[in-house]
Specification:
Maltoporin, Chain A, 5-stranded mixed β-sheet, membrane, Beta-barrel_TonB_sf, transmembrane, signal, iron
Length: 847
């Protein structure tokens, strides 16, 4: 039961929502319906024949979307346009609808989308300026309208030779997704975890993950810009579509990803003016989100902006106080300028600030299993071993009530984390006949400050703590082309500079030689400088009426240099500097076979490389040496299917991935280092099926897979760290974060609609079998670091009236307990719990 200030807070929130609802309803009564708003927006919209953006949108021909013609596979000679047309019409003939470096590009022109007379109210949250007056809803596209940019040009999903899944804006909103680490609610097999801190993201897909938080196996792109590796967990703003590309990527993208790629596309004002504001009040968080896009000068200048604030109330309690609170603020602005019909420039700036985050709150097993409650007056952990008669002899120590591992003591009362992230980018796109030349220049800075450790204290200054700062600059040039014979090609040049600057400052040293009781120096700093140069290319070649051949290759030179004037661990006593470079070549081949309008089959083979480098936290003498590259060899056999006049669609892919020289941490307790321990494999099946009609939208995604180390001699060995010998034997063990089965199901049903009134019910369910938080530790208290199987269930009811949608929702409705991370420091396990049950109300208004 909510008490005191918390109760007052929620009463105020609900009162505010009620007042806002009344005001918005009155405002809505004075306005036209959403359909007439769409018509007004169309009159205010741009002249599409003059816009380079429209060239990318209209490269697919205007065919009847209700028939079974898979027009993404038609050659240009079959398109209903003449070759003698202008540059604009030539570009409209191209299926090559811009590379993903411009993720702002739209799916299909609304005029080409299937219509849906039921969902037009909620779909107002999409851009409506270019929609016809028949209430088209791009959120409920039939299969011919499901568009992906997986091949760097917009194409129907049913034509792609890889495993791709697309989530619409409506699905994202219905699932109450606020942050990128919640996207697993829509994609089976995807997990993005807070691995001991938001600056330590851990992404896993198809059982493939990374021990190095700054060299992820799964990259995140937002509007064509790759995000900093320690910032793939971020709050989301005006998201329009999310694509998940499974398997190795690198011949079409500047970044080289081994497990897969997430592509986020935000709203685009070139498709029409829009505005939206939404308010959420719930047991666990409050959320205000607003975004707007507008054409300032007809056919020439557009602008968009977004702003979002999220406050998380926390749920770990001590008496009436919540201990794991957090807040985040994000926003951005983009300007689109088209001085000529074949040139578009986009300048963007975005920020994401987290002034407070205490979600990295570790619990003992007792606290974790006792409803996330901490006893009033519980002591804070302040020692490693207890009372010792001889500090050099652990056997002389007797644990006390504040010793690490005591089940009633608090790991840390103030595990603060702060993030200050900024990004800016300039995109230039130039179209000429059947080619699009593009350039993207981007700058990212993500600075974080934290103290996730027990025992140690800082001097209280505002800049004291463990800092992790990344500075990233990148440039990508690419040329996308389509030829009269139906061949499509992309070729690109990519450069990235990444500086990882991390260390500690302001810690209180309570041991000789400036050491803390936790075992690291009170002040230290290490920097790694990474330069990446890559040339990549990909082509699709039609082979008659039914077959197509895909070929791609990537050459990359990767160079890492580490400079540590003073390292944190006792194992490194002198300043050190080291560097190493790697030449990397990755090929790709695929063959597609279109049996008929219902079935598309493909087989693909790809080789990808995870870069080597240096440990960013060089705790042990082993960290003075680089760990080597990790090779991934992948084979995939899949199909895209659609039935019932495209209302039912399915995708299935069987895959096998051989992982050579896998990177992981090895050692003992605190003394661990990243090493290449040996070889592993991951094999399984991805399957998703969805049904979409005027009233019902339902989908099911399943990943069944096994990811294990092989039984070879390479997977057993030892590593010497700070004079201590650490043995490892991972033969036959499951890789971390690789459940045998993960399942995601979504349903949304229009129960009732009369004129402008609509009522919906919906839900989302996720299920995961058991999995491990560590690669090699399987002995701690017989499975304390193993996450047992769990299921999560979310439910919602929505009422839509003209421009307004009101939703009541519950999350984790069965109050399932699971941890997003668990660790052991040589003793009992500690846990960071995931969110318990939540209930709330959301109201949104769009124009």
């Amino acid at each position: 039961m909510l008490k005191g200030k918390l109760m007052k807070k929620y009463i105020s929130i609900m009162a505010f929502v009620a007042i806002s609802l009344n005001a918005l309803l009155n405002a809505a009564d004075s306005k036209d319906s959403i359909e007439s708003n769409s018509l007004r927006g169309g009159r205010a919209g741009i002249d599409k024949k003059d816009s380079i953006e429209s060239k990318k949108q209209n490269m697919l021909p205007s065919l009847n979307m209700t028939d079974n013609t898979d027009f993404a596979n038609l050659s240009p000679t079959h398109h209903p346009t003449e070759k003698k047309d202008s540059i604009e019409s030539k570009n409209q003939n191209m299926l090559l609808s811009l590379n993903m470096a411009d993720a702002d590009s739209t799916s299909l022109n609304a005029a080409h989308r299937p219509t849906n007379n039921i969902d037009s109210i909620e779909s107002k949250n999409q851009n409506t300026a270019n929609r016809p007056s028949d209430k088209a809803d791009s959120n409920t596209l039939k299969i011919q309208g499901v568009v992906t940019t997986a091949n760097k040009y917009e194409a129907l999903l049913s034509s792609i030779n890889s495993s791709v899944q697309v989530a619409t804006e409506k699905e994202i909103k219905n699932a109450e997704i606020k942050n990128s680490d919640e996207l697993g609610s829509l994609f089976a097999g995807l997990q993005i975890l807070n691995n001991g801190g938001i600056a330590f993201p851990m992404a896993s897909l198809r059982g493939i993950s990374s021990p190095d938080f700054y060299s992820t196996t799964l990259n995140l792109y937002v509007d064509g810009v790759p995000q900093a590796p320690n910032f793939i967990i971020q709050a989301l703003g005006d998201v329009e579509q999310v694509e998940l590309l499974r398997g190795p990527q690198g011949t079409l993208y500047g970044e080289n990803s081994q497990a897969g790629l997430i592509i986020i596309r935000t709203k685009n004002p070139l498709k029409g003016n829009y505005a939206n504001i939404s308010l959420t009040g719930s047991r666990l968080y409050e959320d205000i989100n607003a975004y707007i896009g507008h054409n300032l000068i007809k056919d020439t200048l557009w602008i968009k902006a977004n702003l979002r604030y999220i406050y998380e109330n926390g749920f770990i309690t001590q008496g009436s106080k919540n201990l794991n609170t957090a807040q985040s603020i994000l926003g951005g602005v983009s300007v689109y300028y088209q001085p000529f019909s074949n040139l578009l420039a986009t300048l963007s700036y975005n920020f994401n600030v987290i002034p407070e985050n205490k979600k990295t709150f570790y619990l003992t097993k007792t606290q974790y299993e006792n409803g996330y409650k901490i006893n009033v007056g519980a002591p804070s952990v302040d020692n490693m071993m207890g009372d010792c008669t001889d500090p050099s002899d652990p056997t002389s120590c007797t644990p006390n009530n504040s010793t690490l591992g005591n089940q009633n003591a608090v790991y840390s009362y103030n595990p603060f984390q702060k993030i200050n992230a900024h990004s800016a980018s300039l995109k230039l796109e130039y179209s000429l006949d059947s080619h699009i030349l593009s350039s993207i220049s981007a700058f990212n800075y993500a600075g974080s400050l934290a103290n996730p450790y027990p025992i140690v204290q800082t001097d209280g200054k505002s800049d004291s703590g463990y800092f992790y700062n990344t500075t990233q600059f990148l440039e990508e040039l690419r040329l996308d082309s389509e030829y009269d014979n139906g061949i499509k090609s992309s070729i690109g040049l990519y450069y990235k500079y990444l500086l990882v600057d991390n260390g500690m400052r302001g810690y209180i040293a309570n041991l000789p030689n400036d050491f803390t009781a936790f075992g690291f120096r009170a002040n230290w700093n290490t920097k790694e400088y990474v330069n990446t140069i890559a040339i990549f290319g990909d082509t699709s070649i039609p082979l008659g009426e039914h077959f197509d051949l895909g070929l791609g290759a990537r050459y990359q030179y990767y160079h890492a240099k580490v400079d540590s004037p003073l390292s944190p661990g006792a194992g490194i006593t002198e300043p050190f500097s080291n560097s190493k470079g790697w030449n990397i070549f990755n090929p790709r081949i695929s063959i597609g076979y279109k049996l008929n309008e219902i079935i598309k089959l493909y087989i693909a083979g790809t080789q990808s490389t995870k870069a080597g480098g240096f440990a960013k936290f060089p705790y042990a003498d082993k960290d003075e040496e680089p760990y080597n590259i990790e090779q991934v060899y992948s084979a995939e056999l899949g199909s895209h299917l659609n039935f019932l006049d495209s209302r039912l669609r399915a995708n299935v892919a069987a895959y096998y991935m051989y992982i050579q020289d896998r990177q992981t941490y090895a050692g003992t307790a605190l003394n661990q280092s990243i090493v290449n321990v040996g070889d592993a494999f991951s094999s399984g099946v991805d399957f998703d099926i969805g049904y979409y009609d005027d009233r019902l939208q339902a989908s099911l995604g399943i990943n069944i897979g096994v990811a294990k180390y092989l039984n070879g001699a390479k997977n057993v060995g030892q590593v010497v760290i700070a004079g201590q010998l650490g043995n490892y034997d991972v033969r036959g063990q499951n890789l971390k974060y690789s459940p045998l089965l993960s399942l995601v199901a979504n349903v949304d049903y229009n129960v009732w609609n009369v004129k402008n009134h609509r009522f919906y019910i919906g839900g989302n369910a996720r299920f995961y079998t058991e999995q491990y938080h560590y690669d090699y530790d399987r002995s701690n208290a017989s499975d304390d670091l193993k996450e047992k199987a769990y299921i999560l269930l979310d439910l919602n009811m929505r009422y839509a009236y003209k421009n307004i949608v009101v939703k009541i929702f519950s999350q984790n409705s069965t109050n399932s307990r699971h941890a997003i991370y668990a660790r052991s420091l040589g003793g009992p396990a500690y846990y960071i719990p995931a969110n318990p049950w939540n209930i709330g109300v959301n109201i949104s208004y769009s124009m």
